[in-house]
Design a protein that fits this description.
By secondary structure, the chain is of the alpha/beta class. The protein has one domain: TIM Barrel, CATH 3.20.20. The chain is built from 12 helices and 10 strands. It has an 8-stranded parallel β-sheet with strand order 9-8-7-6-5-4-1-10. A two-stranded antiparallel ribbon has the order 2-3. The N and C termini lie far apart (41 Å).
Length: 295
């Protein structure tokens, strides 16, 4: 059970703030402080929401380093270290270690569509190259690659593969994972909308986009589940439902950065090929955030 206790709860997939085309490290440090003050259980640095696809390697490592420094050991920092070449993933793994990350998030290799044996060997090579805990990340809608349950069962035998972020959006698949490996590794929801129902099935946390904007409410949902207060958790789920949908109404993380800009916490800037959220969506976000008491 030792593996299960290492990573759980509400983990924010933190945005990477930009200003004038460059990483805004001042805003990043303030975001980390605010997230921790609001009660999140961990921070994922340079994942999908952190625009890993448009950061170069130096920027990628610099953001992880700055996030670790800002967190000051108060919560774990999980470094997004994935790549579609195993050699690249290993390079980012070692750089994340040097930056002081507490754990690693490794997405399935994208675009080249490896076989299940290829996926197993990819993650096995990474696990054998580091002592850091590894969270697998399965998001077929983005990668055109699906990490099947049988392969996860094999990977669960590796000591430092401690969790999986299930972003399939499929509750049947999520339940299958929990049934098959939930006694050996932590299953985390990778979609805000599935967090509460996956908690009910036995998931032990979420890697959340919504918690960028509503960290206390998302954290409270998990805290309520842990306390056995399912009525409060269910209430939080429904309160956040519309906001969660809005944050994915246009390509992420543009809507999330727009919401954070409304809060005065960072600029709306994203990098091409992403573009800022449309004004219509910004106004919808403003209305919903006011109704939630966030503005």
């Amino acid at each position: 059970m030792a593996k299960l206790a290492m990573i759980e709860g509400c983990l924010t997939a933190l945005v990477t703030p930009f200003r004038d085309g460059k990483v805004d490290f001042e805003a990043l440090a303030k975001l980390v402080d605010w997230q921790i003050e609001q009660g999140v259980d961990g921070i994922v640095s340079v994942g999908t929401t952190g625009e890993s696809a448009t950061l170069d390697v130096d920027e990628h490592v610099a953001v992880i380093t700055a996030t670790v420094k800002a967190a000051r050991g108060r919560v774990p920092v999980i470094a997004g270290a994935g790549g579609n070449a195993t050699s690249e993933a290993l390079e980012l793994t070692h750089a994340s270690e040097a930056a002081g990350a507490h754990a690693l998030l490794h997405v399935t290799p994208y675009y080249n569509r490896p076989s299940q044996e290829g996926l197993f060997r990819h993650f096995e090579a990474i696990a054998r190259a580091t002592k850091l805990p590894i969270i697998l990340y399965n998001v077929p809608s983005r990668t055109a690659c699906d990490l099947l349950t049988e392969t996860v069962v094999r990977l669960a035998e590796l000591d430092n593969v401690i969790a999986i972020k299930d972003a399939t959006g499929n509750l049947v698949r999520g339940g299958e994972l929990i049934a098959r490996v939930g006694d050996r590794m932590t299953v985390l929801s990778g979609d805000d909308g599935t967090s509460f129902p996956l908690y009910a099935l036995g998931a032990r946390g979420v890697i959340s986009v919504v918690s960028n904007v509503a960290p206390r409410a998302m954290s409270d949902m998990w805290d309520a589940v842990k306390a056995g207060d399912w009525a409060r958790a269910r209430q939080r789920h429904y309160e956040l439902r519309v906001l969660g949908q809005m944050l994915f109404a246009e390509p992420s993380p543009a809507p999330t950065k727009a919401a954070l800009a409304l809060l005065g916490r960072c600029a709306m800037d994203v990098r091409l090929p992403l573009v800022p959220a449309t004004q219509g969506l910004v106004e919808q976000l403003r209305g919903e955030m006011r109704s939630q008491g966030l503005l």
